[in-house]
Write a structure and sequence with these properties.
Blueprint: E1 2-3, H1 24-55, H2 58-85, H3 88-111, H4 117-146, H5 151-179, H6 183-201, H7 220-230, H8 232-247, H9 251-262, H10 266-287, H11 296-313, H12 319-346, H13 353-409, E2 412-415, E3 424-427
Antiparallel strand pairs: 1-3, 2-3
Helix pairs in contact: 1-2, 1-4, 1-5, 1-6, 2-4, 2-9, 2-13, 3-4, 3-6, 4-13, 5-10, 5-12, 7-13, 8-11, 8-13, 9-10, 9-13, 10-12, 11-12, 11-13
């Protein structure tokens, strides 16, 4: 049986991995993102470490994660409706301004030693509310910067930029916390938000390819959910993502526990472990640009392999061997995301893209919001190694079961080939 995409969803993809950088607007956007992502990760590391210092509880770090991602559970789908209804560039300017303001408040309280765990949790929740719109807005805005022809490669490059920030940010944050305290990390993030807003004002409107905004009408949210449920490539990709988000994406909680409880390395070790994951992720994001076909079975297998590396990491006896496992997990994570995210976007028609991506973002961030306190409690109960085994083992089993289910029902795939220019979803 064949499920053809609507004609408007068919594309002629380009597979030159760095082709989007030939577009001036995208270069400006990507350049500001290098700073923005590094600063974001600096803030996240400083935020988690500040909570650990204030409470001496890994479970409290998990609550911080939950507070930041809880808004995605409560309001995430509505964020997609907002993204579909308003100009994306203006939305991003507003969201980045708000994040900068909250970061500045965190910097003031941290530098004056007046921060409380309740205030940090409130700030995390506020940033999470902004992220409900900012995250899907960023992803949809890439379409306006590069067009559908370069969409897959632009998404891969965005992931590489994000992971480059995840490599630089934790390393700088670890040194900064040890030297002068985490308050400066918050201040740097506030400044980075200002730079992002400035760069958005410098984009050339004539070179943008704006997607028409959707008019306000009833049942807009229901339309996006219905599209997800009736499109196999999206439905099964998001199902695999759900297991990974709840368990494997709670890495900050696990790495904080390994840095303090297992290897006794302190803040610098926490930053090092996050950086090792990011090294693998950068390598994986760049390597995944060579994929010329996107298939559902590849998405599921990549997710299963990623979970498997985390399960193995639980048994690594030394810092070097644990570090190797973290690099491997970073590579696996990007092969999953850079096969799954483009698969979802290329399976979506423009009119509902914001709402469909909001479902993806809801699962990514909302899963972490649910998984953060769960994994924090598990680590407090059975230790860091046991927690890591659970984080990898549960989605590993889920991936195996899903693979067997798809094999039994037939192969569902969305194929993008450099030899066959049109995209189609087939079931056999």
């Amino acid at each position: 049986m064949s499920h053809a995409l609507p004609l408007s969803a068919r594309i002629r993809p380009a597979f030159s991995g760095f082709a989007p950088l030939s577009i001036p607007n995208y270069r400006r956007f990507a350049g500001s993102n290098v700073l923005a992502m590094s600063a974001t990760w600096m803030q996240r590391i400083a935020q988690d470490w500040l909570v650990l210092q204030l409470t001496h509880s890994v479970a409290a770090v998990g609550v911080t994660t939950a507070m930041q991602f809880a808004p995605s559970i409560l309001f995430g789908l509505h964020g997609g409706v907002v993204v579909d209804r308003f100009p994306r560039r203006k939305l991003l300017m507003v969201t980045q301004s708000l994040v900068g303001a909250v970061s500045l408040l965190l910097a003031i309280t941290a530098l004056t030693h007046t921060a409380t765990v309740w205030f940090v949790w409130a700030a995390a929740f506020a940033i999470g509310c902004v992220t409900v719109v900012d995250n899907p807005g960023r992803q949809v805005f890439v379409n306006e910067l590069v067009g559908r022809q370069h969409l897959k490669n632009a998404l891969n490059l965005n992931a590489a930029v994000f992971q480059l920030g995840a490599f630089v940010g934790p390393a700088v944050a670890g040194g900064l916390i040890g030297a002068v305290g985490g308050g400066w990390a918050f201040l740097i993030n506030a400044a980075a938000c200002c730079v992002t807003v400035f760069m958005l004002t410098r984009l050339d409107p004539a070179q943008l390819q704006p997607v028409p905004v959707s008019p306000r009408r009833p049942h807009a949210l229901r339309e996006g959910i219905a599209f997800v449920l009736r499109t196999p490539a999206i439905r099964y990709s998001i199902l695999m993502l759900a297991f990974l988000s709840v368990f494997t994406l709670t890495m900050p909680v696990l790495l904080a526990a390994f840095a303090t409880q297992v290897f006794d390395l302190g803040a610098s070790g926490y930053g090092l472990f996050n950086s090792l994951v990011a090294i693998g992720a950068v390598a994986g994001a760049l390597a995944s640009t060579r994929l010329t076909r996107l298939r559902l079975r590849i998405v599921v297998l990549c997710g299963t392999a990623w979970a498997g590396t985390l399960a193995l990491a639980a048994f690594m006896p030394t810092v070097p061997t644990f570090g190797v496992a973290l690099v491997a997990s970073g590579i696996g994570s990007q092969y999953f995301f850079q096969s799954g995210n483009p698969l979802v976007q290329l399976s979506t028609v423009p009119e509902v893209r914001g709402r469909v991506i909001s479902v993806w973002v809801l699962v990514v961030l909302g899963g972490q919001g649910i998984g953060g306190p769960i994994m924090g409690g598990i680590v407090d109960a059975i230790g860091a190694r046991g927690g890591m085994l659970v984080a990898g083992g549960v989605p590993l089993v889920a991936g195996i079961v899903l693979s067997l289910l798809l094999a039994r029902r037939g192969s569902l795939r969305l194929a993008v080939s450099s030899r066959r220019p049109l995209v189609a979803i087939t079931e056999r």
